[in-house]
Structures are given as structure tokens and as C-alpha cells.
Design goal:
By secondary structure, this protein is α/β, with parallel strands linked by helices. 39% of the residues lie in helices and 22% in strands. The chain folds into two domains: 182 residues, Vaccinia Virus protein VP39 (Rossmann fold, 3-Layer(aba) Sandwich), CATH 3.40.50.150; 42 residues, no CATH class.
């Protein structure tokens, strides 16, 4: 069922009391419920240890971000300066909200951030949240209604597939998610706009980047330091959308 609401409650804005991040809460709830196999492998234990000692997880707790992913966007912004005051931003796959928070702070009160996700997301002041699948016509219409006459300056996606652990499965799904995000973005992005999306390195990426170069003045590939070094993820940044040609 689709939920649409506008966050207005300032008291819900990122408590600065070292509360656990959203991703940490999910992991702890999973463990506390006993949902852990006796065959829990060493790699998974190592990942948990790495997660809870990760400098970006700790910084997210201290700064009130719901996940460490916020620091990836902050690094990308520091390098390429694509978020500006007054912009209208669409955040696909926004939950738990770290990227939306960063975007909101960058675009200011004159800007507008619209977040979409299948999963629920805690209300964020200054962010409009639409719950649902952006491939659904009803959800897309809700997005278009919320955009109204505003020109959309940036569409961004930090979406990743549910990880199976099999590269042959996960990597093509990652490419497909970027293709879906771009299909949505091209419907709303104004000429000159920017597109940012996460993808996993592998087959199909070069062809996708080549295709995007036909749609943008500049296409850059970025891997922020906040991305774990062993991760295959990186980010495609398209700047200067050329718009449709006839």
C-alpha cells in the first residue's frame, strides 16, 4: 500500500545523542531475536566486527545520520559540488534517509527533496517521502504531482540489490537497478540536470556508461573513501543532461 506524507515534525530531526544507526538497529534486532545460524561463518562474524568498529558508522552515530552511506554522498559532494542551494532533488531508494538528509542540508529551505522507497522511512523535516515502487504508475504519478512545475535538478540513487553473495547474480541486478533509476530520472530531469547512481563493477557497466555519455555533457566514475575498499561498488555521475532529441 502506498503511503505519502510530508515530514514536518522538527523534533524528529536526527537526535545528536549517539543513537545507533538504522542499519545497526536492524542488525542488533536480528541477533537479539536469535536469527543466527549455528553455522554462522567466520566471514559474517568478521563483517559484523568491521561494521561496529567502522569509523563511518561511529561518525554517523555521532552526527545523527541513519547510516554510514551519508558520508559517501558527502565525499562525492565535496569533490564535484553538484548539490546547490534551491535545487529540487529526487532520491530513489532513499531509506533509511541518510542521502536525503545530506541533500536537504545542501539545498536549504529554498530547495526541495523528494524521497522514494519501498521501505518505510522515519519522517525528516524538509523532506517529502513517497512510499512505494517508482515503477508503479500510481507512485510515479504521485512523484510527478509532488514535483509539479519545479524543474528537477538532480536524481540520485544509492539502491543496491538484496545481496545473495553470488557475484553472477548480484552484479547484473545492480546494473538493472541503475537502468531502472535512469528510466525514472529521464522522465523528470530537466536539461542540464545531474544523475548519480551506485553500481557494482562488472559485466554491462561499460555499455551503460557509454550509453549515459550520449545523454550527458560529462560522465564521471567515483569511488568515495567511505565505500569499503573490498566492495565492488562505485558511483556513476552524469552532469549536464542533454535532454531529449528528436
Amino acid at each position: 500500500m502506498k503511503r505519502i506524507f510530508v515530514s514536518l515534525d522538527e523534533s524528529r530531526c536526527c537526535a545528536r545523542n549517539r543513537a545507533p544507526t538504522a542499519e545497526s538497529r536492524i542488525i542488533w534486532e536480528y541477533l537479539e531475536k536469535g536469527n543466527i545460524s549455528p553455522h554462522f561463518d567466520k566471514m559474517s562474524k568478521r563483517w559484523l566486527k568491521e561494521h561496529f568498529t567502522d569509523q563511518y558508522v561511529k561518525r554517523a552515530q555521532e552526527s545523527g545520520y541513519p547510516s554510514r552511506a551519508a558520508y559517501k554522498l558527502l565525499e562525492l559532494q565535496e569533490k564535484d559540488h553538484f548539490l546547490k542551494l534551491g535545487m529540487t532533488v529526487v532520491d530513489l531508494g532513499a531509506a533509511p534517509g541518510g542521502w536525503s538528509m545530506v541533500a536537504r542540508d545542501c539545498v536549504g529551505k529554498q530547495g526541495h527533496v523528494i524521497a522514494l522507497d519501498l521501505l518505510p522511512m522515519d519522517p525528516l523535516p524538509g523532506v517529502t517521502f513517497i512510499q512505494g515502487d517508482f515503477q508503479d504508475e500510481e507512485v510515479l504519478n504521485a512523484l510527478l504531482t509532488e514535483i509539479g512545475d519545479r524543474p528537477v535538478d538532480l536524481v540520485m540513487s544509492d539502491m543496491a540489490p538484496n545481496i545473495s553473495g553470488q557475484k553472477s547474480v548480484d552484479q547484473p541486478r545492480s546494473v538493472q537497478l541503475v537502468e531502472l533509476a535512469w528510466d525514472c530520472a529521464r522522465r523528470v530531469l530537466q536539461p542540464g540536470g545531474t544523475f548519480l547512481a551506485k553500481i557494482f563493477q562488472g559485466e554491462g557497466v561499460d555499455d551503460l556508461v557509454k550509453a549515459l555519455k550520449n545523454d550527458f555533457q560529462t560522465v564521471k566514475l567515483r569511488k568515495p573513501k567511505a565505500s569499503r575498499s573490498r566492495s565492488a561498488e562505485f558511483y556513476i555521475l552524469g552532469i549536464g543532461f542533454l535532454g531529449y532529441t528528436t
